[in-house]
């Protein structure tokens, strides 16, 4: 068994799962001020992700730890190379997480407004930065023969990376608004729908652009199944949203976002981080992976625990499946 | 300062900060689950109110613990890329498994527990409380397995210019791990129990729900008395294990420059720190160091000079003595605060027996302030462990100065230190203020938990 391939697939799945799940958390964070006019309405929007966001964020932690364990060379070069961007990303994630949890803990309009603004900013910045970083993996950054990043901060800001960042951010926003339309009652539901109506065509156009641009970086001209899936998802969302097919629209945005992320990784394979200096210096699955024994141990652990995780996270979504109403937001604290 | 020093500073800052929250989470998660169980069994409203009260404190604390944990994971790659390349094969596995097996569990079930009131059946809901605690305990196990490997590498071979895992089983059976993990769990229980005791004492002093808070005072003391005693005992056994694998760490923590036999323990001294081999020993206890370090009355403890000479031979010229001043005082900071906590808990236990804890104003006043002690204890414990490993990042295999990222510029690390420093400071103040505010609130009313009902509104706390 090619354990390195297994782990490349798992890392891809973890990043994809992270975006499909935390993607709508980011979207809700970005949009909660827009779809909620009063404090109760905003609180309702945030409550829709309340029991879920923390478990969703673990996908990111596990994705990172898996890269560390399965591809230490990739993890080391990527994280040290993208250092300045990661400072901002971590700050955004810290601010966002604390904002979600602390927002409701004081009955003061100013306190809530401040956390609300921080939540919006953090939720906007996080997918943008991760998108840029993932785009850069494929577009290529300066890496020398020792697998060492040799660029500066500006080398992270490749046009393609920025485009992927924007695409992913818009998709996350749309994913959040389709989630809200599905999970909360009016008037927040109606506003979320209006936001989706505006965002869906933009997202579809961006994803189609992403597929074309990504294809131009690849060797062949025939797009693979995943980029096509992403585009189909995004276009389907643009069609389904105006029809008020809420559950299907949410599924479509999940496919679009998940497909986009998965497509990036599949385009990369067997490389994991492209060197713009010289393609001979590309980081690959082969030259960055851990030893077969370590990968085997982790494969066993993943085979045992990942199905369990899917099971109990799925159950969580089942437990909290009910649509939330304003009456819910009035309670508590 | 070099990027190595700056990176060390950053790692120390973020780790110490992260570990202010971690032991509270572990300790309070267990204690809150105990309260929840007490309610489940007795259906006594008092326990329900206490469960919710301490559950809220737990959640405020977890929020910061979780997000600062992200930094912990990322900065291995950011600041310590060469370390990551060298150890990823061994060190990465417990980290990845921690996420898969433990952190998912803790985070997912925390959401279920928090929002599960009246939505889950009481039995299932109680199970979620224990799964949160289990997740937190498991999480610490994998992190300690990874850390213990840095202290005493086992189950690996050097191949392809890096350490490669040869036996995951050996990593889990590392004696340093077994003792250190038990020690950390006990310290966490002590921390959680002290927080609970302090909050209860504050309310007892003001006679707010005194009958209920005397229950949590009793619960916390029941955990604290054996917990503190065992933490000290296991800690001293860990010391014996460490003396075997990292003798330099122990010699430095005793400022023991010359090899001695038998060795006396210095309770307090002036000088004797870095490069100062002639301290003014104020108080010494004969034979105690021999006993602590080797478990025998006349055991020999190797001195720093001898060890240094030995390492020069083995690993080439370098300075192998860690910062002795930090070692000496972090060892004492940890042990003395633990001792104080134990004495306090004995006093409390005696008051409980005499049924006088309600009126024990001095005890309760001290118990409120004692909340600071476990944080000093934990921080000192980690300083002792990590500073004592220097100059190694992995004992005997890789030096800290060789682990830092090659592409790293000073300006980048400084930016990151300032960013996280400010963020942590501000959020630390906010978290502390919120904790104190909630800890001082009277207990919530005894809202009955309704029968599980699908159509029941979900309580929003945002």
What's this, in brief?
The complex is a heterodimer of chains A (333) and B (462). By secondary structure, chain A is mainly α.
Taken as a percent bin, the fraction of beta residues of chain B is 5-15%
Backbone shape of chain A: globular
Residue runs with pLDDT of under 50 for 5 or more positions of chain B: none
Question: Which value, in Å, is the CA radius of gyration of chain B?
Answer: 23 Å
Give the largest chain-chain interface (CB within 8 Å). A-B, 79 and 78 residues
Q: Percent of residues of chain A in helical segments?
A: over 70%
Oligomer category: heterodimer
| Helix-strand string of chain B | HHHHEEHHHHEEHHHHHEEHH
Percentage of residues in helical conformation of chain B: over 70%
Distance between the termini of chain A: 52 Å
Structural class of chain B: mainly alpha
Q: Kindly state the mean pLDDT of chain A as a whole number?
A: 91
**What sort of overall outline of chain B do the alpha carbons produce when their principal axes are compared?**
globular
Number of helices of chain B: 15
Q: In order across it, which strands form the biggest sheet of chain A?
A: 1-2
Beta-strand content bin of chain A: under 5%
Largest sheet report of chain B: 2 strands, antiparallel
Radius of gyration of chain A (Å): 20 Å
Helix-strand makeup class of chain A? mainly alpha
């Amino acid at each position: 068994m090619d354990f390195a391939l297994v782990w490349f697939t798992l890392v891809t799945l973890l990043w994809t799962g992270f975006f499909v799940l935390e993607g709508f958390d980011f979207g809700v964070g970005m949009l909660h001020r827009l779809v909620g006019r009063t404090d109760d309405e905003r609180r309702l929007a945030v409550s829709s992700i309340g029991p879920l966001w923390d478990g969703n964020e673990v996908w990111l932690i596990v994705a990172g730890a898996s890269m560390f364990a399965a591809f230490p060379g990739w993890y080391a070069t990527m994280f040290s190379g993208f250092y300045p961007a990661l400072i901002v990303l971590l700050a955004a994630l810290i601010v966002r997480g604390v904002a979600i949890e602390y927002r409701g803990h004081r009955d003061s309009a100013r306190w809530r407004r401040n956390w609300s603004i921080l939540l919006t900013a953090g939720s906007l910045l996080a997918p943008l930065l991760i998108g840029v970083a993932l785009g850069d993996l494929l577009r290529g950054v300066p890496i020398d023969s020792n697998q060492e990043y040799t660029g500066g901060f500006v080398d992270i800001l490749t046009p393609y990376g920025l485009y992927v960042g924007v695409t992913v951010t818009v998709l996350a926003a749309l994913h959040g608004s389709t989630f809200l339309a599905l999970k909360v009652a009016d008037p927040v539901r109606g506003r979320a729908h209006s936001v989706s109506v505006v965002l869906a065509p933009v997202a579809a156009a961006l994803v189609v652009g992403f597929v074309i641009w990504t294809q131009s970086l690849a060797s062949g001209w025939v797009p693979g199944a995943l980029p096509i899936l992403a585009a189909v998802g995004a276009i389907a969302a643009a069609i389904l949203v105006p029809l008020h097919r809420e559950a299907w629209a949410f599924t479509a945005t999940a496919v679009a976002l998940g497909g986009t992320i998965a497509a990036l990784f599949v385009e990369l394979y067997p490389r994991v981080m492209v060197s713009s200096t010289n393609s001979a210096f590309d980081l690959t699955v082969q030259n960055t992976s851990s030893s077969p024994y370590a990968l085997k141990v982790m494969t066993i652990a993943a085979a045992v625990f990942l199905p369990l995780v899917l099971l109990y996270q799925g159950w969580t979504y089942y437990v909290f499946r009910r649509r939330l109403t304003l009456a819910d937001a009035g309670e508590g604290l | 300062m070099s990027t190595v020093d700056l990176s060390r500073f950053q790692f120390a800052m973020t780790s110490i900060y992260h570990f202010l929250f971690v032991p509270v989470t572990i300790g309070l998660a267990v204690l809150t689950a105990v309260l929840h169980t007490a309610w489940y069994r007795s259906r006594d409203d008092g326990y329900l109110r206490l469960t919710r009260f301490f559950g809220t404190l737990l959640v405020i604390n977890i929020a910061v613990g979780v997000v600062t944990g992200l930094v912990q994971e990322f900065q291995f790659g950011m600041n310590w890329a060469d370390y990551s390349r060298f150890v990823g094969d061994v060190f990465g596995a417990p980290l990845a498994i921690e996420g898969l097996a433990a952190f998912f569990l803790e985070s997912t079930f925390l959401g279920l527990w928090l929002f599960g009131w009246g939505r889950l059946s009481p039995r299932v809901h109680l199970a979620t409380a224990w799964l949160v605690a289990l997740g937190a305990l498991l999480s610490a196990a994998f992190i300690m397995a990874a850390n213990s490997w840095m202290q005493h590498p086992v189950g690996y071979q050097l191949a392809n210019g890096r350490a490669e895992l040869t036996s995951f089983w050996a990593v889990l059976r590392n004696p340093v791990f077994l003792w250190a993990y038990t020690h950390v769990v006990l310290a966490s229980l002590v921390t959680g129990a002290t927080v609970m005791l302090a909050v209860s004492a504050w309310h007892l002093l003001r006679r707010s729900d005194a009958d209920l808070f005397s229950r949590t005072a009793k619960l916390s003391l029941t955990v604290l008395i054996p917990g503190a005693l065992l933490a000290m005992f296991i800690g001293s056994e860990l010391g014996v294990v460490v003396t075997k694998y990292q003798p330099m760490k122990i010699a430095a923590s005793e400022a023991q420059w010359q090899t001695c036999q038998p060795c006396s323990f210095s309770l307090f001294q002036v000088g004797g720190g870095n490069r100062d081999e002639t301290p003014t020993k104020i108080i010494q206890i004969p034979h105690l160091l021999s006993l602590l370090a080797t478990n025998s009355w006349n055991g020999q403890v190797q001195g720093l000079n001898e060890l240094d000479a030995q390492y020069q031979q083995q690993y080439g010229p370098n300075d192998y003595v860690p910062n002795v001043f930090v070692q000496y005082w972090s060892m004492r900071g940890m042990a003395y605060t633990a001792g104080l906590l134990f004495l306090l808990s004995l006093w409390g236990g005696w008051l409980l027996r005499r049924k006088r804890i309600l009126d024990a104003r001095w005890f309760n006043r001290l118990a409120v302030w004692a909340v600071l002690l476990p944080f000093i204890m934990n921080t000192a414990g980690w300083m002792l462990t990590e500073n004592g490993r220097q100059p190694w990042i992995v004992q005997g295999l890789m030096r800290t100065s060789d682990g830092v990222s090659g592409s790293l510029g000073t300006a980048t690390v400084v930016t990151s230190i300032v960013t996280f420093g400010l963020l942590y400071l501000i959020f630390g103040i906010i978290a502390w203020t919120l904790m104190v505010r909630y800890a001082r609130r009277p207990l919530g009313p005894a809202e009955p938990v309704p029968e599980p009902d699908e159509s029941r509104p979900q309580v929003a706390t945002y």
